[in-house]
Inverse folding.
């Protein structure tokens, strides 16, 4: 298909321009002088126009629309289906953007084109009145008043700037004009009130000018013709040198882009109406609700024949806007410059010029109005591309001899009457024309570039469309007609004579048949001396107006359903005002209720194809209103974009440091430290020095020469590891972290093929840019509520950018002076298969999942995206000391490259239980005190596998470009560390690098697995299963199960989902139906982001653990204290441990919320509400609900006088004896777990959930889904939310 040319676009040819360049310049950029900053915009606009042949606006080819297919086209695919039948906003928005861009180019040529600019254009005079009742036209109806108001606001702003402090800085010198006249402070105060009001108006002008200049600047820098829809789209368009580089720049730009529609609207008002709207101090133009179609119609009414005085005013405003856009001045300075210019040379306007923008009539929109219809003065310019078809939609208001010769307006008088487009005197004294009457046009009048279609074929000029035309005007404040892209039709906008299918809202038939009451009406287009509304002209004679019913008889309605189901009257609150009551919304224009019903599939298929297309067009718009907004879950729109192939500096180029590291085979490697930042260079080199200082006397690491006292246990081959068997592996992992040399023989290359094994090469994800200097300070938040202060040290995690693997590879292969150190840590593998046999034999949660997935309220699938991932790093990339989230163990397999992995554990392991471990002010997780921590490093090479403890502090450096496969797991061998890690990373999130709140699901599977395994016949337990079951015949193994029971009791409180409002669409719909706001539902009924199924899983897990401990293990085993006395393990071990943990969590929250760990170190003022205080209240409610589970627990909690400073109580010395007691194998689906696991908060939630889903008391059992019930009575099933 050939590119679209400008001269073939009818709408462009009939747009009122002041220069010929938009239509006749072969290359738009040639209309501007060489070197002009806007030549790039002109070139892009040219390319955009040529590419329109492959562009669709709405569902229609853009070129066809611009060539005339839209002209008086009443087909449903182009129109809204309300009674005004405006053109679809998907079309008018694109047309408005397109025309506004060309009108702005016209301004540029007029101001900057010089001698090349030609003004021999198709002259379109001013018409009378405006379409629609919009305030932007009233703002400029009196130019003298507008200029006076602007100057007053600018004067007030200038006076404000003149305030300067003298003496006491808190008491600045009063404004000089106030001080000179104030005889009493009362007068001074009154003057300040008046001044502040004027300054507020000046700020509106500044915002208006800035809004227009913002778009202008984008046109200079980005390949666009308007403001993009989102911040992300804007960043994608900007060239690298214009991308925001700092967090402040990102925040500033993203905040401005939150009102993209307002920015586009401000630019379109300035270009299509007048830039003078931007200096009106009474309104922010980006906040008005503007209909694009009405804006285009009013642009045609204003024409292009403004007087030199008016044109000079507009050009002065445009000149200041361009100066703002080019960075030569601020909008604040522009206000003062304009004020000074008009003070120095006051604009001289005649009475007619002063009222140029005033209106004498308000024209209500009618569907016959067309943005193509044009009133022009003869003679037409010979070079103007006016084809025969275009002549049919141009009216001539005056004889050729009366047309002005100058390109500006010359007042014209005419005595012609009875003709459409005749000039009649208006209130302004200027020529007033009526451009929107319907001209007759038949098919044989159309040429190739004027595609009008068969819908304009009747000789009387009326369309052949079956849709009915309804009377009625647009209400103030409506946008794009009653049915915008995002709004359903309001009751006032529904056309009683239009049959659009029963799926649309239909008024009461009786009301629909009533005639509108007689009364005064607004004058509409086509009125005046030429005739009444809707008169058409054929051959110079006037046809009488036909009623809408005569012109367009209504289509027969579909018969109503034979037995329509009665709709229940919505329940009303007694304090709501009743419709029609005084003070009630809409009381003055109350309407009968409307019926809303949808069509069934067979009813739609019975319709003809045109009607089906009409229904589809309507539904497509509804779909846009309800479909969720797309967003990239990996990066936010405000994340700075990664820029590669730019020069970088590395501190290590001038300051060398080498370190020795040993791989798992015992081979020493000497590596050069690559680091861009001096501070980080010194920190990393200090760490490597500390590691060297803790080596054995031989100079080698302890895992080589003193393995019994090392952090790491290294296996020289996979066979050495596998020969231990599952039980041996678990026992070894409980004591040391593991590395297996050459676990895998599979290798990758660090190229695009290898990187594609990690993720999509072009998908944007979070990438740490280690080439930038570290931030002075960092604050990381937990659920936007919990925050912990990080000391001002360097940290790569604070420098996250949005980038792709392709960019990362481009950086790694760039010349040395352009290579960045990049860390990409977020490539979840949601489609990866999890091996149920787990060759590593450490993933107890995987074993538990496959053994319990068919049990009631256990996980039916394990989310692989949370527990399987890839990481990619380039040379020099590092990640400071951190722990992995929620007590997860970690395994990492290097596929290509090298990783220097540093592990650190406290020399006193009891420190892990201290609530001050990560909250003490002197603690910096990025820089550990090596006097208190043991540190070891191993160099992982391709094929090496690391298996890391839960909550293990580790530092990672990349000496060579690397790709690693990895994952998370829970292990029975390290269960206590998992519990500690869950608690620490819940409160202090900056010690980890990612958050995924799925740990309750895997913990619940582990609980059910323990229940089944520990109560089963030992002979039936396989060695693989037995390796993952705790040894409850030992005191440590039994205590691990007790601690797991405590965790399960508190896992709702320790899960971040419990503090977030629900985003589930079904739940939100139910909440709206019952008048509940999400945050109130969270506070009052514990309806949170935690899913209904997960809530039930947690209830059952608590019940299973209570049954396992109290009814099974504590009956099967006797526990004796250190004196040999028999203990009650429930009251003397479990209850005290749980009470201690509850109080420890309260103490932990006190440190986080009150003791200066909320980012700034400042305490919140009393009496103020904040997200932190709201979250703390929710946490306290969760803990209270848990502490009230049993009387003995409540008493134990209340017995604490001081909050403990350790997470767990001191170890209780006891022994375990197995009794000769037969315990039946527990049924994991026993209904008793419901009662055993229910807390007060669960009761509140379940009761409210039952109300939301309209469940009766008889059907109040939990949702079962696909689980098979084992209850004596069948459960009633409800839809899973």
């Amino acid at each position: 298909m050939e590119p679209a040319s400008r001269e073939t676009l009818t709408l462009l040819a009939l747009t009122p321009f002041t220069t010929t360049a938009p239509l006749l310049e072969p290359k738009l950029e040639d209309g501007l002088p060489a070197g002009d900053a806007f030549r790039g915009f002109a070139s892009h606009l040219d390319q955009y126009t040529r590419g329109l042949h492959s562009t669709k606006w709405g569902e229609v080819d853009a070129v066809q629309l611009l060539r005339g297919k839209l002209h008086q086209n009443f087909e449903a695919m182009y129109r809204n289906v309300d009674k005004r039948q405006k053109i679809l906003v998907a079309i008018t928005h694109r047309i408005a953007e397109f025309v506004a861009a060309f009108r702005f180019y016209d301004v540029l040529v007029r101001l900057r084109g010089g001698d090349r600019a030609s003004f021999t254009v198709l002259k379109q005079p001013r018409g009378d009145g405006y379409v629609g009742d919009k305030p932007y036209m009233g703002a400029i109806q009196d130019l003298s008043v507008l200029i006076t108001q602007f100057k007053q606001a600018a004067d007030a702003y200038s006076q404000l700037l003149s305030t300067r402090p003298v003496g006491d800085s808190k008491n600045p010198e009063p404004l000089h004009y106030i001080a000179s006249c104030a005889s009493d402070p009362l007068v001074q105060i009154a003057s300040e009130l008046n001044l502040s009001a004027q300054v507020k108006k000046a700020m509106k002008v500044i915002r208006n000018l800035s809004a227009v200049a913002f778009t202008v600047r984008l046109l200079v820098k980005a390949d666009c013709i308007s403001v993009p829809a989102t911040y992300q789209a804007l960043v994608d368009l900007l060239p690298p040198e214009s991308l925001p580089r700092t967090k402040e720049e990102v925040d500033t730009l993203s905040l401005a882009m939150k009102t993209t529609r307002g920015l586009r609207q401000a630019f379109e008002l300035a270009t299509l109406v007048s830039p003078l709207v931007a200096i009106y101090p009474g309104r922010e133009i980006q906040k008005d609700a503007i209909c694009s179609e009405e804006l285009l119609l009013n642009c045609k009414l204003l024409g292009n024949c403004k007087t030199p005085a008016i044109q000079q005013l507009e050009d002065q405003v445009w000149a200041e806007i361009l100066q703002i856009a080019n960075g030569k001045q601020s909008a604040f300075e522009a206000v003062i410059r304009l004020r000074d210019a008009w003070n120095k040379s006051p604009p001289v306007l005649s009475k007619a010029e002063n009222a140029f923008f005033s209106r004498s009539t308000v024209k209500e929109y009618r569907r016959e109005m067309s943005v193509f219809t044009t009133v022009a003065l003869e003679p037409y310019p010979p070079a103007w591309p006016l084809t025969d078809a275009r002549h049919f939609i141009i009216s001539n208001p005056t004889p050729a001899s009366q047309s002005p010769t100058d390109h500006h307006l010359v007042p014209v008088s005419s005595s012609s009457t009875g003709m459409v487009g005749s000039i009649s005197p208006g209130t302004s004294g200027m020529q007033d024309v009526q451009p929107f009457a319907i001209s007759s046009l038949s098919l044989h009048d159309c040429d190739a570039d004027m595609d009008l279609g068969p819908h304009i074929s009747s000789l009387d000029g009326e369309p052949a469309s079956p849709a009915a035309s309804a009377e009625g005007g647009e209400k103030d404040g409506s946008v794009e007609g009653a049915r915008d892209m995002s709004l359903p039709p309001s009751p006032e906008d529904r056309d009683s004579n239009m049959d659009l299918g029963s799926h649309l809202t239909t008024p009461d038939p009786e009301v629909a048949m009533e005639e509108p009451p007689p009364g005064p009406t607004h004058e509409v287009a086509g009125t005046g001396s030429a005739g009444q509304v809707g008169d058409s002209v054929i051959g110079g004679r006037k046809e009488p107006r036909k009623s809408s019913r005569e012109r367009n008889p209504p289509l027969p309605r579909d018969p109503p359903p034979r037995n329509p189901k009665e709709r229940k009257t919505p329940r009303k609150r007694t304090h709501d005002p009743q419709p029609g009551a005084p003070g009630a919304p809409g009381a003055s224009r109350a309407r009968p209720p409307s019926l809303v019903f949808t069509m069934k599939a067979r009813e739609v298929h019975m319709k003809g194809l045109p009607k089906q297309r009409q229904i589809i067009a309507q539904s497509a718009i509804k779909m846009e209103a309800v479909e969720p907004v797309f967003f990239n879950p990996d990066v936010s729109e405000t994340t700075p974009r990664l820029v590669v192939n730019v020069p970088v500096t590395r501190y290590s180029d001038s300051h060398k440091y080498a370190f020795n590291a040993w791989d798992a085979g015992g081979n020493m490697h000497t590596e050069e430290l690559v680091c861009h930042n001096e501070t980080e260079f010194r920190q990393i080199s200090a760490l490597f020095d500390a590691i060297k200082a803790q080596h054995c006397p031989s100079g080698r690491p302890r895992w080589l020469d003193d393995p019994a006292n090392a952090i790491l246990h290294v296996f020289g081959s996979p066979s050495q590891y596998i020969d231990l068997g599952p039980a041996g592996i678990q026992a070894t992992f409980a004591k040391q972290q593991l590395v297996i040399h050459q676990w895998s023989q599979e290798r990758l290359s660090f190229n695009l093929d290898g990187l594609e094994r990690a993720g999509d090469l072009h998908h944007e994800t979070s990438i740490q840019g280690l080439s930038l200097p570290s931030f002075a300070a960092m604050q990381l938040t937990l659920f936007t509520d919990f925050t912990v202060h990080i000391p001002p040290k360097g940290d790569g995690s604070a420098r996250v950018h949005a980038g792709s693997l392709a960019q990362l590879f481009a950086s790694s292969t760039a010349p040395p002076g352009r290579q960045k150190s990049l860390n990409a840590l977020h490539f979840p593998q949601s489609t990866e298969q999890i091996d149920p046999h787990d060759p590593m034999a450490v993933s107890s949660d995987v074993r538990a999942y496959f053994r319990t997935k068919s049990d009631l309220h256990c996980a039916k699938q394990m989310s692989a995206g949370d527990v399987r991932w890839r990481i990619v790093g380039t040379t020099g990339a590092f990640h400071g000391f951190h722990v992995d989230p929620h007590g997860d163990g970690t395994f990492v397999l290097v596929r290509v490259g090298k990783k220097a992995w540093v592990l650190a554990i406290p020399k006193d392991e009891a420190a892990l239980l201290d609530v001050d471990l990560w909250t003490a002010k002197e603690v910096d997780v990025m820089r550990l005190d090596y006097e208190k921590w043991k540190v070891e490093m191993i160099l992982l090479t391709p094929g090496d596998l690391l298996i890391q403890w839960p909550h293990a502090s580790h530092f990672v450096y990349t000496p060579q470009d690397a790709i690693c496969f990895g994952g998370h797991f829970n292990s029975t061998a390290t269960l206590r560390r998992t519990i500690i890690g869950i608690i620490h990373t819940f409160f202090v999130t900056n010690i980890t690098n990612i958050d995924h709140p799925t740990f309750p699901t895997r913990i619940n599977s582990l609980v059910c697995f323990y229940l089944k395994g520990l109560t089963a016949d030992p002979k039936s337990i396989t060695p693989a299963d037995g390796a993952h079951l705790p040894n409850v015949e030992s005191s440590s193994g039994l205590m691990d199960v007790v601690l797991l029971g405590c965790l399960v009791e508190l896992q709702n409180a320790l899960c971040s989902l419990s503090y977030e409002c629900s985003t589930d669409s079904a739940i939100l719909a139910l909440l709206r139906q019952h008048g509940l706001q999400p945050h109130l539902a969270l506070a009052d009924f514990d309806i949170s982001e935690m899913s209904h199924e997960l809530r039930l899983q947690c209830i059952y897990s608590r019940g299973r653990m209570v049954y396992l401990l109290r009814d099974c293990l504590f009956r099967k085993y006797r526990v004796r204290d250190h004196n040999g006395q028999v203990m009650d393990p429930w009251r003397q071990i479990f209850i005290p441990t749980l009470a201690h943990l509850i109080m420890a969590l309260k103490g932990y929250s006190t440190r986080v919320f009150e003791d200066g760990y909320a980012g700034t170190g400042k305490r919140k003022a009393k009496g103020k509400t904040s997200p932190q205080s709201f979250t703390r209240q929710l946490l306290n409610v969760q803990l209270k609900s848990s502490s009230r589970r049993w009387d003995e627990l409540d008493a134990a909690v209340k017995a604490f006088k001081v909050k403990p400073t350790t997470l767990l109580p001191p170890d209780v010395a006891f022994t375990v004896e197995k009794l000769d007691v037969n315990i039946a194998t527990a049924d994991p689906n026993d209904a008793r777990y419901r009662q055993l696991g229910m807390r007060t908060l669960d009761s509140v939630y379940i009761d409210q959930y039952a109300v939301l889903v309209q469940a009766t008391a008889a059907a109040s059992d939990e949702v079962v889904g696909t689980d098979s019930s084992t209850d004596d009575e069948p459960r009633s099933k409800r839809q899973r939310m």
About this structure: The radius of gyration is 38 Å. The chain has a mean pLDDT of 77. The first helix runs from residue 10 to 13. The chain has 41 helices and 27 strands.
